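Review form for a predicted model. The reviewer records the input and the model, then writes brief findings.
Reviewer: anonymous (R2)
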Amino acid sequence: MSPLSLLPFLLISLVSSATACDRCLHSTKVAYFSKASALSNGACGYGSMAIGFNTGQLAAAAPSIYKNGAGCGACFQIRCKKPGLCSSRGTTVMVTDLNTSNTTDFVLSSRAFMAMASEGKASDVLKLGIADVEYKRVPCEFKTKNLAVRVEESSQKPHYLAVKVLYQGGQTEIVGMDVARLGSSNWAFLSRNHGAVWDTSRVPEGPLQFRFVVTGGFDGKWVWAQKAVLPGDWKAGMVYDTGLQITDIAQEPCSPCDDSTWK
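Model under review:
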């Protein structure tokens, strides 16, 4: 990826610190899928792995949140506003799909929808079908997982490599990804195929390292895996650990910030 092509990602945002916030509060409506398995066919490309993410508390997000796949894996705290039924804490969901509805920003797994309820009120909240909520972006935390890549079955050594990015922590988005033979400065860029899946037809030989452009704070930055992530004999279907932990907190323009007591 050339330096010029990275300018949109690396230029400092025009949003001033006076209007930027890491916990902007939004209002919307949410619905739910009757089966969490519906999200395993989601646009992010996580497949059956999605069911195991975030204890099954998943969401399909509107295009403005999905961001052509850059929003895949993002986490949001959501709480419903029905007095007597909803808890003040709500629940935290992970984006695994695109929501094309014009009436809701999110469609939740039924487990996530019920998790917004006060104790003993889960079935009553589920009966709402559609709920008025407020939400904010929160960091994703994978305390026992580093950022990882899964080699997709469509990969064909040495001509084509497709990888799925997993366990992206923090409150960030990955907007660029490069690959090179370990120790080489000859980087080849990957393109976003769909959702969390990136690919390239320029596959270096030997053990491979990756670098990522991550948006966080007011700008973008490179995050490097300082080791061989894929061995020379990489195989499709395998998950490989990058050794990286992303913890940055991105900000967005809003005023005022949420200063409520929900944790």
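Findings: The first helix runs from residue 7 to 10.
Further findings: Residues 1-18 have pLDDT under 50 and may be disordered.
Recommendation: see findings above.
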